[in-house]
Amino acid sequence: MTENGDLVKVEVVVLVDDNAQSGLHAAHGFAALINCFYKKEEVKILFDTGPDTTLLNNALAMKTELGKVDVIALSHGHYDHTGGLLDAIKTIGRRIPIVVDPEAFSTKLAYKPALTYIGTPFQPWQIEAAGGTLVLTVKPTLLARGVTLTGRIERRIDEPSVKGLYVVKDGVIVKDEVPDDRALILNVNGRIMIVTGCAHAGVLNLVDEALRLTGANSIAILIGGLHLFNVPRRKAEDIARELKRMNVSKVAPCHCTGERGLEELRKVFGDSCIPLKAGSTYWLSFFA
After folding, report:
1. CA 23 to the chain's CA centroid
2. Is the whole-model pTM more than 0.90?
3. Which pairing describes strands 115-117 and 183-188: parallel, antiparallel, or unpaired?
4. Are 31 and 55 in contact (CB under 8 A)?
5. Fold of domain 9-285
6. Alpha helix (H) ranges present in 26-123?
7. Degrees (nearest 5) of the Cα angle 193, 194, 199?
């Protein structure tokens, strides 16, 4: 697909977030269009789809051509990251790969305050009927040259962010460790970008995984929801400092990072903390 050259530039366009620029809709969730530029071609990857039609409404307002998307990847199986999928597939109008962990379709629950279903609002067969081709994987999966969807992320140095999440296993409601949580790793000629939906696996584990998979010693930028909204302030502070120690140069938080997490990230990263919202665009190139 990308034999004509290496990945030299990436544009991340946030289409859905809990906050939005003027003229766009905000919604609890996340979706981003990842535009990958090679020497002689381009690849478009839709990463997550938000909770509902907010994706299509914002894409239309931003004059973003979803019809040119080459592949869709899902970070995990919560409604706020998958709800817009069927509409996105129909808008694309042709059969397209949907790369996702099979565990994403488990029965995911939370107490809000009563027992509430928070999983994907459709069944796998509906994805196929809409025009998507399910690609169910658990290992790192190459989406395009220089672009990998992580496999299941090892929880080696940090606790997962799974407070209040449950799943049905063998007829019993148990704590959901969200094993389906995955992220994008983009290698722009040696400069590494991570795009995460919620970092349920633990953001430090995610960075550790990206460094291990790429062999790099630093991360140029970490983008997405970091799931710090419900952690104690001390833990948010520790995570921010550890990200810096792990040679993360910049962070671009949004979605579930929360005000407390954002505040601690700003303390540690200063101007290198760049909060994003629906309508935001971030570029990473080999040259700048």
Report:
1. 23
2. yes
3. unpaired
4. yes
5. Metallo-beta-lactamase; Chain A (3.60.15)
6. 54-61, 79-82, 85-92
7. 165
